[in-house]
Model the fold of this input.
Amino acid sequence: MPLEEHYSLKRHNTFGVEAFAHYFAPIRQLDELKELLIADIWKTMPILVLGEGSNILFTRDVDGLVLKNEIKGIAVIRETPDEVWLKVGGGENWHRFVMFCVGNHYAGVENLALIPGSVGASPVQNIGAYGVEVKDVIDEVVAWHLETQELMHFSNSDCAFGYRDSIFKHTYQGKLMIIWVVYRLSKHPIFHTGYAALREELDRSGIKALSLKAISDAVIRIRTRKLPDPAKIGNAGSFFKNPQMSFAQYETLKAQFPDLPAFTVDKHTVKIPAAWLIEQCGWKGYREGDAGVHAHQALVLVNYGKATGKQILELAERIRQSVYERFGIMLEREVNVW
Ligand code: EPU
Done:
């Protein structure tokens, strides 16, 4: 297995910012990881596990070891007339996996088409879009503990999933490499078309009979229209989470800002679109040097070419401050900052 030194991470983060890894090792199977980690040298060094780098902003070099998850494979491990269980390598591309499911008529991930990133990253921030979260289809997550050198199995409830959140962002942050994920998918689709933008897109396309393919196609069209393609303009999707608050807090704020939109989460809680808050503060389409705010989606920060991670983070902090001053809401980052 090749171990690189002073290795550029520019191609390995979708923001496309420059940062160097002191050591860099691609991992294609669990045995390679076990073999590498035997050496004592890693015990005193920071270790960063990287998937496709689509949810990270590098503001400095990694003065340690970067492990790039390249563990591949999609296999059916159990099947009934109604359901199928798929074991998928952490280094598989997420969208390729979604297309595999749609092609085989396995339902559950079609709304999550075109999300950049890897399968191994999907449980970490519980990826979600257009009314579906990956927690709804995760059966098990299997990960290697980098310190204790053990294989750990997490059931769905062990993962403590929340909105863009899981145990992998807290207790196990920086401690694991996700080796494979088992997804439990249905052979009898229940179509999730509740998200307004998705419903409108399906109506517009004049689809007569819904199908997994019709849904993933519609999602792909919406995403392509609104979100910048990281291959062309550096970005990591939504930079902040949508803030949640109680109905009571929302009513108070709405008295002051009558147009304030909100989406119901449950009986007591609403979610406010951070994109709206940011747009109201005048940031949409803003650009300073090569760092900016996407012109079609104010929640997405972009790198037009040569911006540094520090410049993007500085812009994010100014946005956060201005939203706080105007609305009294402190936005929380969705993207990980190194
Ligand atoms: N809006 C604005 N200005 C904008 C864009 C949106 O005011 O520039 C408002 C509108 O009121 C709109 C609402 O925000 O109705 C919601 O916008 P959108 O449907 O684009 O979704 P979002 O809340 O901005 C979330 C996820 C996305 C996911 C979409 C679709 C988070 C942090 N982001 O964005 O996920 O694709 O919903 O489900 O929850 C990601 O996590 O990286 C990501 C892209």
The mean pLDDT is 97. The chain is about 25% helix and 25% strand. Residues 129-130, 197, 226, 237-238, 241-242, 261, 273, 275-276, 279, 284, 297-299, 334 surround EPU (CB under 6 Å). Residues 21 and 62 are 5 Å apart (CA to CA).
